[in-house]
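Thread: V-type ATP synthase beta chain, structure

OP (GT): Posting the sequence first so everyone is looking at the same thing. Length is 458 residues per the record. Can we get the structure tokens written out before standup tomorrow? I want them in the notebook alongside the other entries.
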Amino acid sequence: MLKEYKSVTAVVGPLMTVEGVEGVTYEELVDIELQTGERRRGRVIEVNGDKAMVQIFEGSQGINLPETKVRFLGRPLELGVSPDMIGRIFDGLGQPIDNGPKIIPKMKLDINGSAINPASRDYPSEFIQTGISTIDGLNTLVRGQKLPIFSGAGLPHNNVAAQIARQARVLGTNDKFAVVFAAMGITFEEAQYFIDDFTETGAIDRAVLFMNLADDPAIERLATPKMALTCAEYLAFEMGMHVLVIMTDMTNYAEALREVSAARKEVPGRRGYPGYLYTDLSTIYERAGRIKGRDGSITQIPILTMPEDDITHPIPDLTGYITEGQIILSRDLYKQGIEPPINAIPSLSRLKDKGIGEGKTREDHADTMNQIYAAYTSGKDAKELSVILGETALSTADRAFAKFSDEFEARYVNQGYYTNRTIEETLDLGWDLLKIIPRTELKRIKDALLDKYLDGNR
């Protein structure tokens, strides 16, 4: 029988202290009844002797200390999962908000989960086609990978996220593919954009959406990515699906973590974030991957906005350490009207070499990827030089590289948010652009591939 306590001694922000408790455990779910009869939920985040600190999901407004009743439920926060979740929209705590029927769960899972055991991990090696040339061609996404998108305030990361959710698929397999989308701290307008986009394009038929809005309690924000990943783990490892998890915005998640840390009076770390920010982020990111002997997989694309476009800020800095690369959106390209404004030079996918080549994409992928990247960087350097010395000071090759740079941005990068290119179209476009450069300068591609693809003898 559950004990009921009326020994709330303090409320600070979203935190509540209960004294005289027995047998309470960390992460235990809590039922809170206010003096008005209103019920709220919380979870235990600290236990010290007979004192428990409870994090209240719906906020602490209106709590009367002597009249508040608290019950510890003896179980962690759980998500009821079922195949019927596909095509549905939930709030940040897993409650349906799309006016559909309640989910009848096949099982209930602890949302805290755990990172995949390194000994059980299978190496990511299968190409995922996003339909975006700058990702597929130059920074390839591989099944089971964690590849974040680094953005900035006002940049169109929401458009990129929606485009990937619509277009992503695993090539060469008939396995089922699903998208789990988690939004944290976004505005109502942004949430409606995602819902409308998924619904109108039909992407909702293979997606599960978890929406935590900006006016929802910050504490709920801490549970939202874990809810999404718990759903993804069920779909991947119980139902054998390939699951792409898109989480936006991880900066809002980290801000909520800092808010709770400050309320607990913890010693702050860099920029006021708690010292365990790295550990906390890793518990989310490391829930992606493949497991030996299991058909399913979880691929993650976390999206975060860099405060003041500062890539050395703790959130992108620590995210870069944990994940396998980054896709970076450029404010300069955005101002030029390029869509999507992905900056190919600092972007990186550390696992791209494992997901490309003959039998996965095409035999010429690796060579053209290296050559296009080298030509683009040479072209940017040549353009900078021409500003100082004038275009007449450039060599014939430099002028070709400068022209390639402009054409690359105009045709390769600037494809729009509703153009879904196959990997063959991306590679063929790359070859078409490389014709701008003299063949003698294409030093990163084998002669056999130049003979086969550059001259059109395919």
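GT: Both are above now. Quick notes for whoever picks this up: Residues 70 and 140 are 50 Å apart (CA to CA). The mean pLDDT is 91.
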